Amino acid sequence: MSNLNQRQVQKLLQKLSPQQIQMIKLLELPALQLEQRIKQEIEENPVLEEEPSEDQEEEQPKEVSVEEYFAEDDTPRYKYHANNYSPDDQKRPVYLTEGMSLHEYLIEQLGFKNLSEREMTLAKYMVGSIDDDGYLRRNLSSISDDIAFSLGIETSEEELERILRVIHQLEPVGIGSRNLQECLLLQMNAREELSESEKLARKILTNYFDEFTKKHYEKLMTRLSVGEDEFRDAIEEIVHLSPKPGNLYSDGKSSAQPYIMPDFTLDYQNGIFELSLNSSNIPDLKVNRRYMEMIRSMSAGSGQSAEQNKEAIQFVKNKIDSAKWFISAIKQRHDTLMRTMQAILDYQREFFVDGDQSKLRPMILKDIADATGLDVSTISRVVNSKYVQTQFGILSLKQLFSEAMQTDSGEEVSSYEIKNILSECIDKENKRKPLTDETLMDILNDKGYRIARRTVAKYREMLGIPVARLRRQL
């Protein structure tokens, strides 16, 4: 049996205090979320309040007594009230309604199908398993197990398959598909009279889907014994089908992109930059003086009353300290953001003049950390989800950072320059014989850029451009 020993060990550990963690979280928040965070803090801490702006202070009405008001008014008394209401008038509430969701729309359509109570219950459960893009990505076996567990209904895959065929008849066409092939075939089969190109398209989707997705066009034309023009027409029919049937449903609501509020505003006039932090919707904060006076009056009490107020005084003190720290943290956040953005502006001054991406200098987080004296992790949090409004549009701060590449002359260039050349080469390529990554590497090397084939592939994927085989067109 081993002996038990006790010993003291000194360790140097770095731990963040709760306030430091909150400060880090505040630093990461973009302008829109910061506004919500401040409102939340005001609701939770009664000591914290918004400081009224100068405009609000000027607009405050003067106190006027009722006697003074009526004394200065020559309006006849009978005109003080407007009797233009009928006793039959009723105040009707205004109901705000939202559009029907995709799942609600599908369940409504199920009501028009001839389904038994059991089938309707199963169909509703299956509709609930459909994703927002219209696919049923769970296998029927798993759904059967879930139904038995949650609803207590024993069912089989065959029964669920029959109900799924009913769901496939609903709109939008292709809803409830389990894969892309089934989705496209459901849309094609929903057409009443098929043209020759549509029949060929259906044949391709049914029998040669793998070859179609891999763009083995010559092999397909040989197997189908069709010419290039016929094959091209069939491909056009397939391309016009929707790969995401859920997107075909619209309930009247706009599907606009999420609203972006820039964190910085950068103006450039007469060769001078003017950088400012966008704090138009962020209120100035202050500590409510009434609570300070409350503590003084409660502390001034003597004897038994002072002892009774001790807990209340401690509570108010904690709230005041919390409010003061929050105000200080907001100011520190503003200072850190401005300091970081100013360093980015100094580093990329040529780019911010006209927005030409070829003028972007290679820049990494460490460059800005060295310029500001802040930690790299702090710069990363500042840059994350932050935007700057310029005269040529709103930019994400992240897109201003890029790796450095060397040319044959030893000059450092931004990876954006390499990506622009790649995009231009691919845009101008012969679509019948697209450029491979190796060919693109040779082109870049001929232009003086030292770059490997795997780096070309990485940049191509970052640009969202598929491989040469998938870019091929007839």
TrEMBL record:
Please give the residue ranges the record annotates as the region Disordered.
Answer: 42-67
Q: Which keywords belong to this entry?
A: DNA-binding, DNA-directed RNA polymerase, Nucleotidyltransferase, Sigma factor, Transcription, Transcription regulation, Transferase
InterPro entries to which the protein is assigned, alphabetical: RNA_pol_sigma_54, RNA_pol_sigma_54_core-bd, RNA_pol_sigma_54_DNA-bd, RpoN_core-bd_sf
Every copy of the RNA polymerase sigma factor 54 core-binding domain together lies at 97-291
| Bias kind Acidic residues: ranges | 43-58
- Write down the Pfam families for this protein, in alphabetical order: Sigma54_AID, Sigma54_CBD, Sigma54_DBD
Q: Which residues are in the RNA polymerase sigma factor 54 DNA-binding domain?
A: 314-473
UniProt lists the family membership as follows: Belongs to the sigma-54 factor family.
Instruction: Spell out the protein name for this chain.
Output: RNA polymerase factor sigma-54
Lineage of producing organism: Bacteria, Pseudomonadati, Bacteroidota, Bacteroidia, Bacteroidales
